[in-house]
Amino acid sequence: MAGRRDWTRETLGAGVRDGDRRALARAITLVENGDPLAYGVVADLYPSTGHAYAVGITGPPGVGKSSLISALVRHVRAQETTVGVVSVDPSSPFSKGALLGDRIRLSDHFLDPGVFIRSMGTRGHLGGLAEATLQALLVLDAAGKDVVFLETVGAGQSEVEVIGIADTVVLVLMPGSGDSVQALKAGIMEIPDVIAINKMDHPAARTMLNEVRSILALDRDSDWRPPIILTEATRGEGVPELWEKIAAHRAHLEESGQLDERRRNNLAGEVFAVASARAKTHLENAVSDDPELRRLLDEVQRRELDPLTAVREILEKVFHIDSGTR
Ligand SMILES: Nc1nc2c(ncn2[C@@H]2O[C@H](COP(=O)(O)OP(=O)(O)OP(=O)(O)O)[C@@H](O)[C@H]2O)c(=O)[nH]1
Ligand SMILES: [Mg+2]
Prior knowledge:
Radius of gyration: 22 Å
CATH class of the domain at 47-256: Alpha Beta
Number of helices: 13
CATH architecture of the domain at 47-256: 3-Layer(aba) Sandwich
Largest sheet: 7 strands, parallel
Shape: globular
Number of strands: 7
Bound molecules: guanosine-5'-triphosphate, magnesium ion
Strand content: 5-15%
Strand order of the largest sheet: 3-2-4-1-5-6-7
């Protein structure tokens, strides 16, 4: 296979800018593997990013996220909009196999040069999911994609890391997603910007709609009321309406000046999330590699050393942070 060794920081960056598919595929693989070349390329490309609109698509397993993205891609392609799709699987360090379903669902678009689709694990990542997603988004953005969909399965903290960079967050539910409805109700799950209730061909879809509607009615403070759309992804039903609501949310953010603010907060949050994840990995490695640090943990366990003294000594040794007596 030609290519692998041929790419340099310069040629790969130029290839991505041109929207060259091989360059894009290579760059995202390097991102996925946490390869140093990817950092250089993204660093070079970063000043010319900010064009792409990032739409996060989250929700429980099997609700139809990939099917909906596929239908949305078909819809926006009809308007000449170029698209990137990144499906992130938080449960798997490897992208192959686990995301077979995504590949099948999205395969209609593989031959369309205006669409770039990629499933991603997070192997080799010091900065976790947040890092992999952010870097992949930036690559697709630099390649000139107008819209980038970020798909991830809703699984607690992990989906927050993936969709934390999105301009608009769509939560996909289906009849039977009771746990998510409870999580919304209890305030455990953040209120998304748009909600799609998919599989509307299912008889319980309307009940679900009413339930979600009554929960959202309790939230009177915000100036954006998340619209709820019934969809049937497999037949494209409700998909133009869903896209219309995503566009309406974007217009709302732009007109109120909140898009800049949201992006500033998102980027700051991502930088913090990646830095935290890297610091944590560094700390774990340091402790497991250092008998002296491991000894501290043993002493805590034997009640010879109190926990906060151990914390202080570890931070001092690993990060050279003097946390004083606090
Ligand atoms: N009846 C019906 N089935 C649907 C609909 N949308 C998707 N499906 C089916 O639901 C199954 C899961 O769809 P996916 O699009 O893979 O769902 P997903 O949320 O991406 O799944 P994961 O990525 O594995 O979490 C597939 O068998 C789809 O064909 C719908 O509107 N109605
Ligand atoms: Mg999927």
